[in-house]
Amino acid sequence: MSGAVEYFQYVLAPQMLIGLVLGVAVILVALGLTIIFGLLDVINMSHGEFYALGAFIAVALGTIGLPFWLLLILVPLVMLPVGYIVERGLIQRVFHTGERHVTTLLLTFGLGLVLEDTFGLVFGPNPYKPDIPIAGGVEAFGIFLPSYRLFLIVIGGAIIAAVAFMVYRTRLGAMVRAAAYDRHMAASLGVPVQHVYAGAFAFGVALAGLAGVLLAPIYSVFPTMGRDFILIAFTVVIVGGMGSIAGVVVAGLLLTQVQAIVSLYISPVWSDPIVFGIMVAMLMVRPQGLFGRLGHG
Amino acid sequence: MRASHVLVGILVTASLIFAAVGAAMNDTFYLRLATEALIYAGLALSVDILLGYTGLLSLGQALFFGMGAYLSALVLMIVPSFWAAFAATAIVSAIAGLVGGFIVNRVRGAYFALITFGMAQIAAKVVYNTRALGASDGLIGVPVININLGIASISSASPAAFFIFVLSLIVIFYVLSAYLLDTPFGRLLIALRANENRVQFLGYRTMTARLAAYVIAAMIAALSGALYPMLRGFVSPELLFFATSGNAVITVVTGGAGTLVGALYGSLLLTLLKSVVGSYTEHHLIVIGLLFMGAVVFLPKGLMGVVRPAIERMLARETKP
Lengths: 297, 321
Fold this sequence. Notes:
The complex is a heterodimer of chains A (297) and B (321). Chain A has 297 residues and is mostly helical. Chain A contains 11 helices and 2 strands. In chain A, a hairpin with a 2-residue loop joins β1 and β2. The mean pLDDT of chain A is 86. Chain B is 76% helix and 3% strand. The interface between A and B is large, with 38 and 36 residues.
């Protein structure tokens, strides 16, 4: 009996906790992605690069001596106008073409390339590793967890709850959902649809930037950091249902646990193919994902 | 005479002159680079059949390209025969295209793009981690082969001869695709792009047409990939990565989607740009990315959208004096 408890304590539980931290991180990135898709019907291929942009801004501002806690607020605020300009200046240009999915996907893909190479140009190819803002660890029930990761789980949960509250319980969120459901009807009722679109894009991008700041101390900062992360974020959005906030949370927790368990029992090498396999299977069987779209119930 | 055919004629003539000059100057580097550009042009051609005609954006065409390259390398290492490698690739890619087609054609639009992307990622990760396929190192030591053409024999080690051989194959792929897209089947594909629901009401089975387009594209991508180990003597997992698929999409969109010939010019343009910009800075992606974004926003028909109408006007002037 004690063998089973020890196994749980030293093998299974730490692995699942690592999975949970990754899950919260993935959800933070995927939230912006799903809001942008749910409202604008745009697949933002440059989302991973906005995540990296947030991390790089944090690194740059960190070197001039700004504390981490200030960056946590400052970086998303800096990202908001960036996202707003990208939506108004770039995405709107191809938004009204017949094949919106394809053209916006291509445009944001190009933007991602440019951003990624710019990071390499400005910051060089070597990774930066910001200091962990909270040192030490916590031990509960014999399971050890670094304090910063615990903080990440707590603040990640708070951010997710705050976003869900904003979308489903505020007047602003109601406007967003109305515009997602029927943009013409929303516009005729006086919702400034253009600004809601650009604002939602900016909001999604700012969330990605916030995730970049939060995760930089753990996963370190380098130009292609967005690329590895965006794959799993896309998978989460697809499995959860494009545009669904609940879907992102459920799928994010589920898939990262699958990854953690697969790494433990089969091999870390197989965790990615299996997770992508789940995505492909989901697209085949139920392309709309686990939950419905934003604004559709 | 169509403007696209004139453009292909110009391309072939220029390539032959280039090969002659290259051979006279005993050049290897530029001839090999141009051969690689042509091989990637074949991949881009397959993307254009899907994107430009059928309206399906494949973000995972590297799956078939890389599969062809690995298969060809494996066959060549056992039997150093071009035709054995070519036939094996053709058969396997047709089957893989059919199986893959059944999976991906269940969905449309953005979901199609993402499912092709996901499938290619799975394949890339599996190959990357399979020891038998060389894992992250890829397969090295693919032998030099002599391609027996009945009347003559071409060595893959001869840069000029192999360049002309690859050129002829890619032009054959182009001619076959252009012919096919001109038949009623091709019209059906174009109709699918315009409005798939209406095509169904006209009594056509859209699934069959989409599947056929997917299999043809898979075969062209795989057969182009099969040429890669003959040129470079190795294959690496990078051939399966998203960068390869992404580059093919950039090539098609910059060259001009839905023109076929745009894929050929796009590939040459991009390779040229990479080597020119690459000689000044390693950050050529900024330039290519900006060019690509510019093409998406300002030139929906790409480079060919500008060049082809000019040629068409010239041709029209000649026919009515």
